[in-house]
Fold each of these.
Amino acid sequence: MGYVAVTGGKEAISASLEHLAYERVKDGKLIEVDALRSTMRGFIDQVMSESSLYSEQLAALAMKQSEGNIEEAVFLLRAHRSTLPRLYYSTVTNPREMFVQRRISASFKDIPGGQILGSSPDYLHRLLDFSLLEETQADILNKKFEFETTEVPEESSLPLEKLPKVMDYLRSEGLIHDFPLNNTEPDDVTKENLTFPSSRSERLQILTRGQTGAINALGYAGLRGYGSSHPNVGEVRVGYQPIHVGLDSDEGDEAYYIGSIKLTEVESFIPMNVNVDGKEVLEFDIGYGACFGQNETKAIAMSVLDHALENPENTPIHDDEFVLLHVDTVESTGFISHLKLPHYVTFQSKLEQVRKIKRGGGVNE
Amino acid sequence: MNKFPFAFLDEQSKKEIRRAILKGVAIPGYQVPFASREMPIGRGWGTGGLQVTLALVGKEDVLKVIDQGSDESVNAVNIKKLVQDTTGIETTIHTSEATLIQTRHRIPEVPLRSDQILVLQVPEPEPLRPVERSEFKTKQLHAEKEYSGAWLLLFEQIMRYNQTTQGADYPVLVHDRYVMNPSPIPRFDNPKINNSDALMLFGAGREKKIYAVPPYTKVASIAFDDYPFEIERFEGKSCKVTGLSNIFLDEMTDEVTGETYYLCNDTSFMKEFLEKRGTVYVR
């Protein structure tokens, strides 16, 4: 009778859960959450971004609990999010104040403040490092010491928390399409249902918490032929972004610093036709991407999609319903995995009709 | 650690869900958008129904959860356990003892009362989705009561097969106004929604919609005059154990003889029937 016995379902489930718990401990090895937090940065950054919950510790816990399954880890954190009330919104934070650790431009060689490579696997040969198989604690401390005692040859000419934007250069020449400052309160997709046509704030929120693979795939499709946004990466910056919370107090509005988050921000330049006084000219438009942690590919893909959705066209990549309703990891994995649930009542209902049609042969010619 | 609020969701979320429910009750059959929360069970595994249940459940409630007619199905057990773990309320398998019943794809055989609420899990709330993939446009079609698409679907089925081929989730017209998906219950259960004593609430978690059929509301399965709506018929078949035939049946195969036989789909109904008769069914 499959997995819907008249009785016994409860026992079968608890046995399955015990089996799952055993898988994690079967080799008798322990890994501490703190060790995961400090060594699994890529995993943690991706999980924090997709779950839209910024906590390295909880992401590491989710990693441990899910045995490193990203889909499950994001799921755990999203569900945890639902138990927490939203008490505050942060004040507007400006990435011009980011404490920059990495910042590159693919558009200009020489940018004010310079190209700052920071840490990135971009320049790495992807060769397996077999020495890591035998790495010891002492090796780790040595490598750490060596890097930390390296002499810094030259300080940056500009303060790292006040680096100008690459975009400013184009703007000063009037090459960037100018938009009035938009100060409308953003919609909160976690508090209100997304409606169509969507607002830009809704789009950016859904894209930034979208599944990394889904965002990359759709961004790629946009570049390859299903979209008309082919960007130049104006600037990718990664660093720590200060967050403040405003509190209404008797002494007026005050903003309190609550900490900094690791953020990736991308501004892409996309050439577009503009009509100025009846004359066709080319200007640059901006595609924007930003996400928790260091997730550069995702942020660039997001900038492609942001621009595509700002300019609706008749392709899936430019269609806000197509993109926004299918990139969420909890939604897509949930619905696909529900196919494993029993469907025998619905199937019985269909079966009855199929049999009747076969029997009756009443097909209209 | 592991300290979660009563009924899992934070109070603000519950309030918002209750407001969506109230709006749904006020506009029968209308899909009320809500900011569906992520649940500890999968989207598509009953998160919409679960959020409705969690927003409504109080300490005095007695909960029954069924999946495809069974109280013991994996998903029913899971959902029941989650609600119980986060609320400590009583659960039951007996339809008549429950104040709140969450269900996937069945309406119990035991008639519901006015002091009970039935919460149905909905995978696809939009009856017009097969003809119009855009949410923006289907919303307009509902506003304009433009349901040609729904009728056309049926018409095409009849042209091809000389009958409708919509199995479960057969669309209904609620209060002569909104066309609604009743969730994938068999057509057998559609008539139970009409003029029901109990409040029926529908939750679609992934699609972020809640809708409702208040008690004593007119609900008609859409059909043409010359091709009337028909429920599934199990002609000549009856439950092997109870002998009943006026209920929805599961088709089973005897592992040894390979013979096909039928059993009541509503397992708690079958159990109660047998207990009343003084026999106990042991498989």
Amino acid sequence: MARSADRELPAVGSTAPAAAATGAPAADFLLVEDLRVHFATNRGLVRAVDGISFELQAGGRLGIVGESGSGKTITAMSILRLPNSSGMTTSGSIWFRGRDLMRLGEKELRNVRGRDIGFIPQDPMTTLNPLIRVGRQITEALHAHQHISRAAAATRAVELLRQTGMPAPELRVRDYPHQLSGGMRQRVLIAMALANEPVLLVLDEPTTALDATVQAQILSLIRDVQDRTGSAILLISHDVGVISEMCTEVVVMYGGRIMERGATAQIMRDPKHPYTTGLVGSVPTGVDKGTPLTAIPGTVPDPSAMPPGCPFATRCSQVMDRCATAPPYSALPDGRRIACWLYED
Amino acid sequence: MKTDDKAPAGSARAPLLELDDVRTYFGRGGTARRGAVRAVDGVSMTVSPGETLGLVGESGCGKTTLGRTIMQLEKATSGRIVFEGRDLTRPGRARAGIQMVFQDPRGSLDPQMRIADIVREGVPARGRAARSARAARVAEMVERVGLSGEHLGRYPHEFSGGQLQRIGIARALIRSPRLLIADEAVSALDVSVQAQILNLLVGLQRELGISYIFISHNLSVVEYMSDRVGVMYLGKIVELGTAADIYNRPLMPYTQALLSATPKVGDGDVRERIVLSGDVPSPVDPPSGCRFRTRCWMAQEICAREVPALREVQPGHWSACHFSGQNLKPAEAHS
């Protein structure tokens, strides 16, 4: 731990305007720098995440939006540090409260995961152990990071479940996961993630498997939790509506790279990158049936065959010769950052 | 269920499809006995020629079973399904003229067949001339859905989800249906590809004049596609009207809650929202009276006692609520 605490914070090239105003170092809380996660597969090298950088302030709300294959889930998993799989290579840094998570030992990492960082996955059915009562799964999370008696843990488990809005939590702790509905299982996972009062919640498509009215319950619960605990959230979703509602800042990913990032309201109202324009224009909300949607032609290329420069070049309506080399990230006057040759003079 | 004599109709024209009190029960021999799952429980509605009727609802509301019942993939327990004047529930009646596109194109196309064979399957052709005419039609149809002739000899695994859905649409359209049932046809697709398929479906309808029943849990997709929309809850249609009626002037509290629950782009972070408590009850043992009453902020004693009929509250706008027509706003339910 001392080893990494000694490490100096890296120089921050991409200071967010808000942080610059207060003079605080932007990297105080979470700073991802040039993260790369590559997989050697028998079809070729897959650059699942290919050089992305972003930051999140303490108590902030950041969304990562993208379609399948964009690398958004791998990015989230990297923050909890993916299990090493054969053929996987990683590089870059993930600075979390002054320590580089990429360089922590497994034991130190275990102290961060589940205590400082809580994780809420998409599919509660495959994350909960089907053979263990949900109450015990919550107390296990408590015992992992706190010296707490069994009785106190049991009481705390009921209390945590109650905070998630679970009806009759003192009875539900005795249920097995299959006895609960999808929304209730998601509440159990939220209770587990909150058990050790994390300062960062990473949520990977937390409501994608849920019905609309249940999704509304869970989103409002997540918002309540954030208001109450002040923890930061990093929310991964394919749904621009969910991101729009939950996050003040957004990172738009495609083909393992960031296309555009900045304030959510600004990017949704006035997308600049051709991919973001297509993504927002594909959502039919408020569009007359007579008006064709701004669909993006084609499909996401095979991950082992991404174009060498801008990954969106094969589908972009404004593609140029220059797009064969990757565009740099540049800041626009309104503070957003964008990777597109259209905005380079 | 009592309705006002006639089924809720879209227009004055003779309907293409008319459902009269259709029920589909599962288990225990599919009877009305206790323990059966009442997946569809008394649905009456019509679809006019060239119209798109959207069906929305959450999982377990019966929208998929209703589509499959119309397609004759499930047997209706009772009720009448009249298509082009013929009652499909009578024995020996084929469903010619109705086709379906499914949610999972990878699961609904035979992986061992070439695209040409998948599209051609089920179109009879006797003799050499008929066969070459059919081959030409297959090629034409594949191009019409945005693929090319070179794709005909390939197998499903060589295609992306969006392309497979195009193939599913070509397979459905080659049999010249008058009604196409799209059951969550774009739900498994990425949003950019989803928009391509929606554009394709709208274009084909304009060209061919066919009717769609567009089933989805995604409210904004249904609004974009539909002329009229039926909202389902626990096996029943609880509200039916033009897309503008449903989305701008919803009468039924459930519809209001469902609309309010959907996050929209550009809404920002503070918004009034009706958050329902609890989950959808089990269709094995639905609540007495109005099925929504256990989650409804308006519920009164009458709601437990009497099943509200689907009434025409305003011209063309039907609602199954005891308080429809009275000015019901969610009384600052939650925010």
Amino acid sequence: MPEKKKTILLVDDEPDALAFVEAIVSEMGDFNIVKASDGESALREVRAGLPDLIILDVMMPGKEGFEVFYELNQDKQTANVPVIMLTGVSEERHMKFSAKAMGDYFGSEPFAFIDKPVNPEKLQKAIQGALGG
Amino acid sequence: MGVEYQFEVDPLYRIEKFMASMTDLDSLLVVIMREATVATDAESCSLALYDENTDELYFYIARGEKEEREFERRLRYVRMKMGSGVVGWCAVNRKSVNINDVYSDPRFNREADKQTGFVTRSILAVPMLRRGKLIGVVEAVNKRAQNGFFERDEKVLTALAAQAALVIENARLYEDSVRRARLSALGQAITGAAHCIKNILMGLDGGSYILERGIQKLNMESVTQGWDILKRNTQIMRDLALDMLTFSRPRDPEYEASDINEICTGIAQMMRSKAHDKNVEISLDLHPDMGKVTLDPKAIYRCILNLVGNAIDACAKADGMTKIATRLLREKDSLEISVSDNGCGIREEDMKKLFEPFFSTKGSKGTGLGLSVTHKIVQEHAGEIRVESQVDVGTEFIMMLPLNPPTKHNSVN
């Protein structure tokens, strides 16, 4: 039975970063790629149609990545979607949210944290893990 | 007894009043030395500082006379070894010394008198100590109309020496805290620059990844996309380097008689296509028949370009409007250049940090230095820049430049 194409939602305010992640994802196979350039539109896309994976940038103007993650966890339906977070700030307050702390605070943890500039192999491995599991 | 006590306290009281109003170390020390001269009824008082690094003493305030400043400045280069002369002895032994007839005291160094022609009769020297550390020595020279200084004079001079030591310690602590603040600011600037560079790296990595895949698969679309991203990010890198250089170095404006309206028109024309891509209209409201004004055209061009770029980004939505305006305000002797938009506005809490280096609300779009550089250029023109903004209504940046700027001669630094 042919498997339905998986949908991956990419969220990043930087168009160049979005293009980069899209290229990395396309290399892995045939996915239905949906793009959003801010937190609000990302949440809208999720409510319109549940993706199989969300790749979410942390530093965004307006609704930050963490805020989006928190809201996703509020709703039982959206809470099950695996999330890979991309962070450009490896020190400071963003890293204070270690995966465990996020678990305590948000009720669940993102599947993975990937540092920017993104290492394509690392991201692809994380995507495989998030979708495979 | 009562009168004596007052005589001792008065100079201290006067100095306290001065300390509250003065911050310049030299001025404070001169005041203290003057008080010492009067209080001990000496011909003059001097202050020598101890240099920890070289274990030497040097006169910092000589004779307590402002007119002697040039003499003092040169005297600061004269170094005395610890232990040499009365001042040196006082410093080494950390004890006051009161000598009525210096020429009969082996500690006295006759060389200074020989060189200056001054005849020293009596010396009262008191060490300046702070928390057990030697700061230097204060000395009173030639008690008037008497053979030598009294015990009372030693008490007064000791109290004033303590004041001087306190003042010097405070000045050094202040210098330390300024240095630390500067280092911390430097640290923050480097972090900000590193963040911007990381974003550029992301762009370069992304662009080359896409370009390489395109070449491998002979896909022209990917090749073009990748190349565009590479070009864009190398431009951002260039902008960042230029901004950092401009921001870090003080620069006198290269004044020229300039046609500011022409500059604004040029910028509007150049930015029009970028603006249209974001649904933004650029309009001009220029003061008619302005003629030429004195400013640095390249620098002001950068300022206006930065402000217009920000404005377009802020109102990039439907019906976005950016306006560049110029006004000649003869009554205020100034030129007003303003850039306004009907965009997202600036939040109250962001207003204070607006001109800080690498503070940005645009995410990774700019270098983070645009406004800092703009602010710096306006200041170097002896001008002012102010902001008026309302969230979701719009923002206006107003630069006021003097029509007759102070002409500083160009300094080589």
Amino acid sequence: MRVLLTGLWSRRGLNLSCFVVTVVAVSASLLGPMYGRASAEHLLDTRIDQRAPYTTGLTYQVPALHETRLPFGSPSAYRPPDPVQLVSDARAATQGRDWDRYWQRRTPWLLDEGGQLKFGTFLFEAPLYWRQGMCSLADVTGRCPTRPGQALVQQTMARTMGVGPGDVVRLHFTDQYTYELHDKDGTHQTEGAQGRTAVFHVVGTYTVPHPSSPRWYDLSRFTGIANLRPPPTGRTSGGSLPHTPALLVAPGSMTSQTFVGGVDLPIDTAAVNLDTMAATQHAAGRFTGMALGSQDPNVVAELDVTSVFATVRAEHALLSRIMLAALAPFVVLALLLLFALVSAAAQVRRPHVALAKLRGHSRLQVLRFAVSEPALVVALATPVAVVLAYVAARLLARTWLSPITPVVADQSAVLACVAVVSAALLASALAAWGVMREPLASALASATSPRRASRAGVVLRSAVVAVAIASVAQLLTSGHQGSQLLALVAPLFIALAVAVAGAELLRRISGWWLRRTARARGSASYLASRRLARRRDLANLMLPLLLAVSVIAFAGATSTVSDQWRTSRANAEVGAAQTYLAATSPGHLLAVTHRVDPHGRWLMAAVVDNSGDDMSRRVFLDSSRLAAVTSWDPSWSSVPVRELQRRLAPPPGTPLTLTGTRVSVQVADVHLTSATRTRSELWLQYVDRRGEQHQARLGGLADGASATLTTKVTGCAAGCTVQQIYLSGQDRVASDAQGSLTIAAVSVDGQPVDWRLHDAQAWRPARPFPVSLVDPPVELRASPAGLRVGVFLAHLPPGTGAQPAMVSGLARITPTTTPDVVPVLVARDTATSAPARNSTAMAIRYAPDVVVGTSLNGAEVPMRVVGRTRALPWVGRVGAVADLGTALDEYAPLFGQVVDVQLWTAPGTPPAMLNAVRDAGISLSPALNLAQRHLELHTDAFSMGMRLFLIVGLATLLLAVFGVFASAVLQSRWRAYEVAALRVVGVRRRSLVRASVLEYVVMLGVAAALGVLSTLVSVWLVLPSISLGPADEFDPTPVYDVPWAVVGAVGLGVFAIATMIALLVSRRIARLGRPSTLRWAEQG
Amino acid sequence: MSTIASTRTGVAVRCVNVVQIYTTAGGHDVVALRGVDLDIRAGELVALLGPSGSGKSTLLGLFGGVLRPSAGRVLVDGTDIARINEAELGRMRSGTVATLLQGASRNLLPYATAAENIRFARRALAPSARRQQPAPRELLDRLGLGALTHTTVAAMSGGERQRVAFAATVSSGAGLLLADEPTSQLSHDDRDAMIALIRQVNAEFGTTVVMVTHDPQVATAMPRTVTIRNGRIGAEGRHGADFGVVDEDGAVHIPDDLALRFPAGTLVAFEDTDEGLLLRPLDDPGRDR
């Protein structure tokens, strides 16, 4: 053993290199699976956190009154159960059967959804809610309700309703009962209902800072939206609206027939891990079976741990594949370097092995003698590597995942470690065997004789090239159905093949270079080309650097493409830095944003609808702020966003306005007939300064007479914008009027105003309403007498047949500042169609770029495609974007139509801006956050894997640089003899240094260049086959362009490193290569 | 403690028309030995002499089982080395033949001590044979190297290394010691000490010693010298007297000093006289007289 240790120490440089490389290889083999496992555990926790708690937690509820047990005779016969007993029953039902193991302790609650709250003309569902510890979970202003009849009101709701502590809120309940009905058929048991009012005294207000946290358990699963949404202003009638936020009450307030008691058991992320997922799933299944038999199936159906676990398993599998793809080249390179180093060490020990053979040692003894030293190095390195891997995995987990993420070595880690250690031992044995099998006479000679390329080597190199070609062919022919693992490791095969081919190519080029330089005067080029042409280890020296460049550049390229895609997805899904649900009308929000942010820097109004397909997936936004506010991704279009914004904008022009309180319209030459004897009326549509749209009845039209029709207008003291004048039946019902009338003049508050009624270019027929792709049933002609309006309701202008019934309701005219054909941006994968040309209802011929679009009110309208982009905000790769103002002018939402009105804000929007919007009476609820979505997308399995891929790529580069440098330094001693010999025959030192630098720069530079080439091949052929992660149906597709900046930077960086190695090694060789060196060689 | 004498017996070596041909890296054949016949008796002390490239080391390699003859027979202790396999050759190298390579460092593990090198040299011996050998310290003491027992080779002088290398080589108790230039690059004192060691081993243990040397003084000290020229046995010396050797073709090499008087191509006549065989060149003036 002492001889072994002293031998180890005597070759400490080499052995230390072997030790380092072994530590690196074994660490990597362990680190990958350990980090992969930790990432999967982290993903499991993250995915559980991202789901609503009730989809992963258990909820069990017991109703106070079963509907089959209604009180008899009178509601007063009902005796409500003790709420405490009710939650105890629920608690008891959830005892045992692993539910305590994987889910947290039970939180009892009581809920009554039976109450209704009247506010203005609207009726809301107003739940009552009690949850254990609710006043500590919510931010309460005032005090916690302790007695029946006390309530906390949600803060926004309190503000909207104008209530506060001391006020009273009344809820209306309907109690059911059964009674006996006696009629001619006999006596029947039937149900009755009786209303009652419950009075609650407001003792304070509350907000819930984290409504979706497992502790609050997301009450919105029962109550719908979390905010009271006041009715939009400008409406005149009411209707039923969704739930208000719950009133928080004491348990004693639960007295109605409709309350339920329940318990929530949030999932315990500390107990659920990859190993216990299956058991958890099983337990959830048992709970579902139990609960289905006794309660509302809808509540039970929300429990869905299966899909969470399936997602995590899929992500874990993806992560494992990425780990393997990242670590395989690294481990292969490390083992190759280890083999090169132990081979060099074996060469150093060659005389000693020969001595053992000379002393008659048996084959086994020689093998033991030759292998023991590198095996000892591997044995010493392994525990160090294990500790290092664990520390590194912990560090990575703490930095990138979470401090509590467990780091364990599972079976795959142990297997990988054993495989790499075995491979290291095998490499040691192979290197020793190479020396052992040398004949004794040859081994005793002082120099090694050059070996010819072995047949096995040729076969191996051919196999590498064949595998690379086969894997690429497989990927190209199988499309996206191919193996992801193959796609991920294909770059390794390609790099190996390029290395083999590149080394052969360089050898041939060097031969050609040698023949050229042999006749030239310069000795440096000649010596460099001669060395390159004669080197047998070209592939061995080029491979590490080439492989490293290929790995890191490919990882960088993949990561860049993936990052850009995720950024594009986030931009498309969210639309802006932050979006808010705005509880107001689109016009109001549009007006408020223009008033609060006149320069269009921060705020933008939008109406979104992504529920349909193709052109019905649409966003109407304030196009003047498209570039400033939306999260427009540069990859979506080569056309600058400002240019697209310009194309979307409505045509320039000054809108018609009115300022005052009364509008009078003088009509003349009214000649209208109606087959249904419907009396026609004239209406004015305008928008006030608040952005609210108004309809004002000007008056009925008497046939043949001239008249002045007058109406009162509201909100126009400071000016309103005229949108339309239209003719309808009485009270805006459909009309079948035919004929004409002249709008002769208009005055406001008695003063004539110029509405350009004599200008044929100032007005145009508006599309029918409700709209269809038919010609407007209106003809306009300007004359000195005014604007002559031809009305063709129920018949087309040429009178070639009846119009569809839905079209024939209204005849509208609008100022030409509202475009007839709306500019629209269309996402690339959106199917579009031209308006039908053979319809008998179509007289207008649209230009080829006009397609059938969907208006704000859902009807089809002609739209002009002003740009096709890869994706668009909110709708992704299928859908359209048009200007909101234009849409509102002609196609405003129908009465009663619910539209999703949103406020989009730019990054860094000052809070004062949002406050100003709220001060304008608009309730804002945060909807989506770009940074949050970006973070979510960048913390999925693929992103986490790619991050490690990059780190491993960098480590591969460092390892390769270390290996190349160590190899060059090891060779420098015998290279020094050659240099010394050349100096003795008169070659200048400077020429020798230049020759050496040239040789290494060419060799390593070619390796770097081939690495870049290998990367480009991989990016072009392999990258499109790699799944960058799960995507939704409408997400933008990845852009597989070569990130030249990344690839170029890696190539140049490595070339710079190669040049540095060349300079350092050449200077060392020149320093060692003195004539006296030859004397050492003589002395052996 | 075992006694050295009880374990030692000399080994005889016999060469019969041995031819050795090397193939160079370029594929050319080079004839190193051309039909060498040589008998070395057990316990004999022989020095192989000759110019560089004459085939001395090749002959030594054949005796040591490092090489196998291209033709002819090499019998070591009666065993034809051309007819045994590698394992048997290995066994022969472990116990029967010991080779001391040229250059002390090539015979030693430089990072080990003298005692460890001796143990390393004996590792191939069967345990029973190993037990019969003296302990390393005892062997080194006997050879006057006891002080170096625990000294690392790298810390020894050139002469010390050479003597330790010799000790390690003979430590296996081989009956045939082959030494390639054992005195080269040594000072006069070290050289004399080395010769003394060789004589001591030969005398005390009966070990047959075959030694290659260029040093005339070393050769003089040897009872028998064999001179190799151009791959053949050119001459032999016995106790200071030189003799020509008639080979199987009847050819005889003239000693170097006489060869100067007989340039290549000289025609000579043989006359059997009372004083012996007279060699007379054709243009010898004496003939006219």
